[in-house]
C-alpha cells in the first residue's frame, strides 16, 4: 500500500497526516480512516496533505465525501496543503472554494470550536 | 508502446510510472511532467472504474508514443453511443476553458475540443451537488474529466460503440 496515515490530537482538533499517494487504489483506505474518526466522535478534522506525493480526483472525491459527512454530523473538516501542485488541483476543480485550506497545521488548528457547539 | 492493464485499481500507478518515465526520456518540458502523471492517472482510473462497475474483465489499453509529440491514448471497453458532434470545430484549445468557471449555472457544459469534433462534457458547478457526491465511485468520474480538461491542452474524448478513447498529447523539445 503506497499510502501512510497517522492521526493525533492537537489544539482540540484531530489531525490526520496523509503521506504517499492517494489514488483509486489507496483512496478507500483514506476514506475508511476518516470514517472511523468520524464514527469515533471526532468532529474537528484536519487532513494534512503536506507529505502527499500524488493525489488525483479519486482522492479529492474522498475528501469531498468526508467533508459532506463531517458537516452532516455537525463537524468541520479542513485541509492543510502547502504544495502548489495540490493547490493547483483544488483550483482546477473549484474545490478551493469548497474547502477551508491552510498552509500549515498550526494555522488550521488555531482557534477551537469557532462557530459551532455550546462551548 | 502499448500497455494492457488488467482493470484493477492497483495497476493505475504502473501506468503513471511508465508514462512519466517515457515522457521524461522523450524530452517533454520538465514543468509538464506532473501534468502528464496526473492526466494519465485520471484517464486510466476512469477506465478501470468503468470496467469494474460494469463487470468488464478485459484490460484497459494504454498506447504511448513519442514522435514530435508525446501522446497517450487510453481506451476502455464500455460501449457508448457515438460522440455528439454538436458544434463545429472551435479554434480554441481545451486549456482555454475553465469547466468550473460558470458559477451559479448548475450543469454548465464544458466542451472538450480535439481532432474530430466536440464532445460535450457536463461538469457540476453547484457546490451542493459536488458535496452530495459523497463516497460514490460514480461521481469521481466527473471530477476526473474536469481535471483532464484542466491539465491537458490537446485532449480528445471520443465515445464509440467499442468504448471510449481518451487521447492526450504534449509537445516535446526536438
Structure description:
The complex is a heterodimer of chains A (119) and B (174). Chain A is of the alpha/beta class. Helices cover 35% and strands 32% of the residues of chain A. In chain A, strand 1 (3-10) and strand 2 form a beta hairpin. In chain A, helix 1 packs parallel to helix 2 (57-72). Chain B has 174 residues and is of the alpha+beta class. The model of chain B is unreliable at 82-125 and 130-138 (pLDDT under 50). The chains are: A alpha/beta (119), B alpha+beta (174). At the A-B interface, helix 2 and helix 3 of A face helix 1, helix 2, helix 3 and helix 4 of B.
- Structural class given helices, strands, pairing of chain A? alpha/beta
As residue ranges, the low-confidence spans of chain B are: 82-125, 130-138
Order of helices and strands of chain A: EEHEHEHEH
How far is the first residue's CA from the last residue's CA of chain B?
A: 20 Å
Radius of gyration of chain B: 16 Å
What's the pLDDT, averaged over the residues of chain B?
74
- How many helices of chain B? The count is 4
Q: Count of DSSP E strands of chain A?
A: 5
**Given the C-alpha coordinates, what overall shape of chain B results?**
globular
- Helices and strands of chain B: which structural class? alpha+beta
TL;DR of this structure?
By secondary structure, chain A is an alpha/beta fold.
What are the salient characteristics of this protein?
A: 119 residues; alpha/beta; five-stranded mixed β-sheet; 5 strands; B: 174 residues; alpha+beta; two-stranded antiparallel sheet; 30% helix; globular
What's the layout of helices and strands?
The complex is a heterodimer of chains A (119) and B (174).
Chain A (H helix, E strand, L loop, with lengths): L2 E8 L2 E10 L4 H13 L4 E12 L1 H16 L3 E5 L3 H9 L7 E3 L2 H4 L11
Parallel strand pairs in A: 2-3, 3-4, 4-5
Antiparallel strand pairs in A: 1-2
Chain B lengths: L1 E4 L6 H15 L6 H21 L6 E7 L2 E7 L33 E6 L2 E6 L4 H5 L8 H12 L2 E6 L4 E8 L3
Antiparallel strand pairs in B: 1-2, 2-3, 3-7, 4-5, 6-7
Helix pairs in contact in B: 1-2, 2-4
